[in-house]
Write a structure and sequence with these properties.
The chain has 494 residues and is an alpha/beta fold. It contains 18 helices and 16 strands. The strands form four sheets. Strands 5-4-3-6-16 form a five-stranded parallel sheet, sandwiched between helices.
């Protein structure tokens, strides 16, 4: 423990963000740097618990509690308090390959499991991680890593978080790694799925540059299974790792789903970021929300990203529909006790911006979309909804029930479906005859990661379905260990 009485002396101080009225005018990151002395005092708040739940990474009622990467959080908090920043960086990266990503986009299950958060405000773990890794880059401590060559060649399919993590660890132990990516830029979800203001692409490119300098090869604009047969990779490489993600977007089976102006959120976000990076939106190759009434169906992080993106385009109005009830303002201990992930209402950056601009939260809870209506040109003009309640059916399962007389018509010019993903695409699985689980994910046991096909492994969302970036990074690391064992008989990857 850096300071025995720190948790009593210092209050939690969240990182400051640029004001909504300023940041909605650009695509730059939201967070502002924190004074090092404040970071030091925040590190002193950590109690160095005898049992540090913050790095447990266990599932409780289907939700993660603590860090899946098992970061040694109390240790780098103490080092920060003592001013030993480089040692804190070394301790952080013993378990985390890319802290610059998790500190920006991870919802911080570590903070949800923080013991201090049981009775007070949790430690600002996420922000301290951010300050450590940015200090490390600024000081030049982050350098390319490469071990003595083993002569083994591995293909990684997909350059999202799990693919990058797998490639990083396999490269560190000396294997020759080639990453195949179907897009024109590497990074997968972190490049095209997460908006720039949440994760600036220079941050992704900064890491990719280091990976290339360490010897990892990236083959872009190449879709395995279409541009190159998956079997060719099996014939060429000693092992193949599938990290293609769960990219089949969940649709909405209602009348009018085929109308012009109805889009998957992932297509909306990807086109926006690509156009921004290519030409600063001058090419017009994106789905523009300017002057439009926007309806976003889905209340999660992707929906929030669509809210913020639409606002930056200059939309006329934006509403977000959520079929579930509004979460409580505080954790309900009886049904959601610590250290479970706290299910409580949060106002994320997109909602902050909508409230600042329109004077109200864009979210509408317990609402179901009945149909989408169009005009004579086949363009969206209305969304018809009904309010619902959740009731138990005869088998005791909660099901939605419509509230009579609650029908409503919403003016709409653009409808974005942000309802999650169903699993990985079928092309590679069909070609290689890979076994799938009940949710259509590639079947590969956790901590083994082997598929039913010799020398083919799977990790991340390809194996577990849609999940957190931090889980993808951990799966990439553990899968790299199993590939290393497969090739060398043992592994030093932990």
């Amino acid at each position: 423990m850096g300071k025995a009485t720190g948790f009593l002396e210092y209050e939690r101080m969240n990182p400051k963000k640029r004001p909504p009225e300023e940041r909605i005018k650009d695509w730059n990151e939201l967070r502002l740097p924190m004074d090092p002395e404040v970071v030091k005092s925040q590190g002193a708040r950590c109690m160095n618990c005898g049992v540090p739940f913050c790095h447990g990474g266990v599932l409780l009622k289907g939700m993660v509690s603590g860090c899946p990467l098992h970061n040694l959080i109390p240790e780098w908090h103490e080092l920060i308090y003592k001013g030993q920043w480089e040692d804190a960086y070394k301790r952080l990266t013993r378990t985390s390959p890319f802290p610059e990503f998790t500190s920006r986009v991870c919802p911080a299950p570590c903070e949800g499991a923080c013991t201090e958060g049981h009775i007070m405000e949790s430690v600002t773990i996420n922000n301290i991680e951010y300050e450590i890794i940015e200090k490390a880059f600024a000081e030049g401590w982050v350098v390319p890593k490469k071990a003595k060559a083993t002569g083994k060649k591995i293909a990684v399919v997909g350059s999202g978080p799990s693919g990058m993590s797998t490639a990083y660890y396999l490269n560190v132990v000396g294997h020759d790694v080639t990453v195949y990516e179907r897009n024109d830029r590497a990074g997968g979800l972190m490049m095209y799925g997460i908006p720039n203001m949440k994760l600036e692409k220079r941050i992704v490119e900064r890491r990719l540059k280091l990976m290339k300098e360490s010897g990892i090869q990236f083959v872009l604009n190449t879709e395995v299974g279409k541009d190159i047969p998956a079997q060719k990779l099996l014939d060429t490489y000693d092992a193949v790792m599938l990290c293609t993600g769960a990219t089949k977007a969940r649709g909405l089976d209602v009348e009018g789903k085929e109308l012009k102006g109805v889009h998957f959120a992932v297509d909306f976000l990807k086109a926006n970021t690509k156009s921004l990076l290519d030409t600063n939106h001058k090419d017009g190759n994106y789905i523009n929300a300017k002057g439009k009434n926007v309806i976003i169906i889905g209340g999660g992080d992707t929906g929030t990203d669509c809210v913020a993106t639409s606002i930056r385009h200059g939309c006329k109005s934006v509403y977000q529909f959520e079929i579930m009830p509004e979460p409580p303002a505080k954790r309900i201990e009886a049904s959601n006790p610590w250290p479970e992930w706290p299910k409580k209402l949060k106002v994320d950056y997109g909602q902050e911006e909508a409230i600042s601009l329109y004077g109200k939260d864009p979210r509408n809870y317990l609402i179901s979309t009945k149909k989408i209506m169009g005009n004579e040109n086949g363009e969206v003009k209305e969304v018809h909804t009904v309010e619902i309640t959740w009731v138990k059916n005869d088998s005791g399962r909660l099901v939605p029930q419509e509230v009579p007389g609650s029908e409503k018509v919403w003016e709409a010019d653009l409808v974005l479906l942000a309802m999650g993903f169903l699993g990985p695409e079928d092309t590679i699985s069909n070609e290689l005859k890979l076994e799938r689980d009940a949710r259509s994910n590639v079947k590969a046991e956790f901590e083994v990661f082997e598929t039913n096909v010799e020398k083919v492994f799977a990790a991340g969302d390809t194996r577990r379905g849609q999940s957190l970036v931090v889980w993808a990074l951990q799966e990439g690391k553990l899968a790299a260990r199993e590939v290393d064992k497969y090739l060398m008989g043992k592994s030093v990857i932990k």
